Amino acid sequence: MVTRRSDATRAAILAAARERFAAEGYERATIRAVAKDARIDPSMVMRYFGSKEGLFAAAVAVDLRLPDLSQVAREEVGRALVGHFLGLWEENEELTAVLRVGVTNPAGAERMQGIFREQLLPVARRVCPDPEQAPARAALCAAQLLGLALTRYVLRLAPARALTREELLAWLAPTVQRYLTAPEP
User: Fold this and answer.
1) Distances in Å between the alpha carbon of 138 and those of 16, 44, 80, 84, 106?
2) Which of 79, 86, 100, 130 qualifies as a FRET site for 154, CA 20 to 30 Å off?
C-alpha cells in the first residue's frame, strides 16, 4: 500500500500534537508550536483540523481497548480491569495528555466524559448486579483509576511511582472489584 503525502502530513501533525498536549497541556500548546514540531506551515494544521479544538479531539481519540470481560471470571473482573489500565498508562502518552487537559479545560473534560460514557460505563453495565447502579459504580472505578493516573503519571508523586505493578494490582483490584460487583456498599 502506498502512503499518500497527505496521510504522512496528517500523521506527523497528530504525533507532534500528542507530544505538545502531553508536555504542555491544552492551554499552553499552540498550533504554531505543533506545526514547527511537524516541520510544516501552521496553515496546514488548520487545513487538516480546522481549529485547536479539532486538533485536540483528533490527537486524543483514545480507544481504551477494554478487554472482553465476559471471558473473565466474575471475581477477577477488578484485577483484569486494573491490570489493563496499568498497561495502557505505561505505554500511552495520549492518556496523560487527555488527563492533564481534562482537569484544566472544558474541551478536555468533555473528551474524558465521552471516554467514560462510551467505554467504561458499558463494562460496568455488564458486570454490575444492579443495572441502575452501573453509572455510579463506573464513576467510582474511574475515580480510583484516574486518581492513580494523576498521582503516578501526571503529578509523578514518588510514593505512587515507587509502587510495582503487582503492588498496585494488590491494592486497587479488590477496590475496583467491590465497586463493580458487590451487592451493596
Assistant:
1) 32, 40, 15, 15, 21
2) 79
Residue type, 10: R
Residue pair 107/101 in contact by the 8 Å Cβ criterion = yes
CA distance 99 to 135: 20
Q: Give 106-162 as a DSSP string.
A: HHHHHHHHHHIIIIIHHHHHHH-SSGGGHHHHHHHHHHHHHHHHIIIIIS--HHHHH
- Block means of pLDDT (10 residues each) for the chain, 185 residues, are 74 90 84 95 93 83 78 90 90 74 77 84 90 94 93 93 96 96 89
Q: What integer pLDDT is reported at residue 3 of this predicted model?
A: 53
The pLDDT assigned to 66 comes to: 82
Question: What letters, b where the CB count within 10 A reaches 16 and e where it falls short, cover 23-42?
Answer: eebbeebebebbbebbebee
Q: Which amino acid is residue 125, in one-letter code?
A: R
C-beta atoms surrounding 90 within 10 Å: 11
